[in-house]
Design a protein that fits this description.
Rossmann fold, alpha/beta, six-stranded parallel β-sheet, globular, about 400 residues, 2 domains
């Protein structure tokens, strides 16, 4: 099978991109032919075959300077003619059997769905966030969990100014989502894949993709992931450093508990985090180095303050044989079983997080056994073979 993966960024920027490249590698091992389409970017993986067809890079956070730049960016968010044209040319050259979309919002827009429909190619989309139900992606209002747009429609975002407290930015996102719904811009997607039951429930409550949403959990390729061999280590955070990830809460918890934390990743909140003697920053690491850092830990912290979908940080920690302390939001409680392979704590609660991390570090043998339980969980329930079978079924359903 010839699979064309479409994502706005084509480098390991976060969990969505990690999943994209890992699944593409699994598909190639299984004998599929894989190609990529996305936005032109200096950090994109080298050697992308169809890069000449990629639309030009546009940065939206912060917005482009000047009135003209902002108007052009807004127009591209709603409908990108360059993305549609580039994907049409890529489809003509690669001739895929299916197009598998990921995060295509804003920089690519649903114009890429129209390109697939015009070419007669079926489309499957993996949902990595809540964008189709919440214009600002995150189901957050001023940093707090919110489902107003899920139950009341996308124009709630404009009324609440929930995008960074900005009325203009919130209105733009609300209008964008309203227009896409009004003109059924996403209807060309045959199957919407939700990696968690929580996300699938949000889409169903929002009336998005009725009858087209199916749950398929992300895989962990543990055959190529060495597990932690002996007890020991400290606390590690691995992921994109953004406000919703709660890394500031983790640093505060580390100070309360008197423990050190290693932070691997990059992102827009990096410069705002407090620099203390308890926090060591490693930046964005290559995959092998990241896994080595995780294996050196006794526990991985996922202190998110938003409704996580199914974060790869948890699955990779389990694959490395390391337990996880995470918050009780979104899909996280579907992954972590307290007392078995980690602990679940309230969000934005440094004291509770500190206590949970302390309990884990106080008995490293127990922590090691919990990590082994996590490894067993992903071996049994998150296998690549099962995931590929689920993807193929979704591809066939979309066709």
């Amino acid at each position: 099978m010839r699979v064309l993966h479409v994502n706005k960024f084509l480098y390991r920027r976060g969990g969505a991109e990690g999943y994209l490249f890992d699944v593409a590698r699994l598909q190639e091992r299984a004998g599929d032919e894989v190609a990529f389409f996305g936005m032109a970017h200096a950090d994109n993986e080298p050697g992308l075959t169809y890069a000449e067809h990629f639309p030009a890079r546009v940065d939206l956070e912060p917005p482009p300077p000047g009135v003209r730049g902002r108007v052009e960016a807004a127009a591209r968010m709603i409908w990108s003619t360059s993305a549609r044209r580039g994907l049409s040319d890529t489809i003509a050259a690669f001739k895929p059997d299916v197009v598998h979309m990921h995060n295509v919002y804003h920089q690519l827009s649903p114009s890429v769905v129209a390109a697939c429909r015009a070419a007669g190619v079926p489309v499957v989309m993996t949902l990595h966030d809540y964008k189709l139900a919440c214009p600002s992606y995150q189901m957050l209002d001023k940093g707090r969990p919110c489902d107003a747009c899920v139950t009341g429609g996308p124009l709630q975002a404009a009324r609440r100014s929930c995008k960074d407290g900005s009325r203009s930015a919130s209105t733009l996102l609300a209008v964008e989502s309203w227009l896409h719904r009004r003109f059924r811009a996403w209807d060309g997607v045959g199957v919407l894949i939700a990696p968690s039951r929580f996300l699938a429930g949000v889409m169903n409550r929002a009336g998005v993709g009725a009858g087209r949403v199916r749950v398929l959990r992300h895989p962990v390729d543990v055959d190529h992931l060495r597990t932690k061999e002996k007890p020991g280590g400290g606390v590690v955070f691995a992921g994109r450093i953004a406000p919703e990830k709660g890394v500031d809460t983790l640093i505060e918890a580390a100070g309360i508990a008197g423990i050190d934390v290693d932070i691997a990743g990059d992102g827009p909140a990096l410069s705002t985090l407090p620099r203390t003697e308890r926090a060591r920053f490693h930046g964005r690491l290559p995959k092998d180095e990241l896994h080595e850092l995780i294996r050196s830990a006794a526990v991985v912290a996922v202190p998110s303050r938003w409704y996580e979908n199914q974060p790869l940080a948890v699955l990779e920690a389990f694959g490395c044989g390391v337990p996880v302390v995470g918050t009780n939001l979104g899909g996280l409680p579907e992954l972590i079983t307290s007392g078995v392979d980690g602990e679940v704590v309230p969000p934005d609660d440094p004291s509770s997080l500190a206590s949970a991390l302390q309990r884990t570090l106080q008995d490293l043998d127990v922590a090691h056994r919990m990590g082994r339980a996590g490894r067993t969980k992903v071996e049994r329930h998150f296998s690549p073979a099962d995931h590929l079978a689920g993807l193929r079924a979704a591809y066939e359903a979309a066709a």
